[in-house]
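With this grant's support, we have settled on a layout for protein records. An illustrative entry appears below exactly as we store it:
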Amino acid sequence: MSEQTVSATFRIVDINYLSFSISPPNVLEEANIDVGELRRNPNTNDLNYTTSIQLSINDKTKIVGIKISVKGFIKKGKKEVVLTTSEMLCDFEIVNFDEAMPKKKGAYVLDGIAYTTFYGLAYSTLRGMMKVKLTGTYLEKAILPVINPAQIAETTKLESLISSKDVSKKKTKKRRPQKN
């Protein structure tokens, strides 16, 4: 008997911007970071990002939640100077949950295509929200890099079997925006 994959029919039901912070200029000055140069071109100061992903599945509400946390920082010697942090939760309702989310060994199976789609939508939404929040600050020109969600899904090695009570946390590698 062959297994059949059913595509998830979904909609975004909620987006919550959970937190945002930006370090005051004096924190950068104390770390010998030129705020003026950072304002002109954040890429010249080795601005890096780390991204954390949390996935949750609620079988009662048929909601898959993707929580993304981003930290923007500059490495000074052995110390990281955190410039900005941001966290967002994006909830997706799976209309055909029972068909698209089969159970195997007591855990729901979220296929790679659905995960990649959900992560890509949530990450892109966070990029836009951060751009708005950073407007008018010394990080106004800093933009989260464009990523390939399929590549992130592959590198995070997120388990496709998630129980309704489990939350998986994976961190992606540090990324630098590409210079134009």
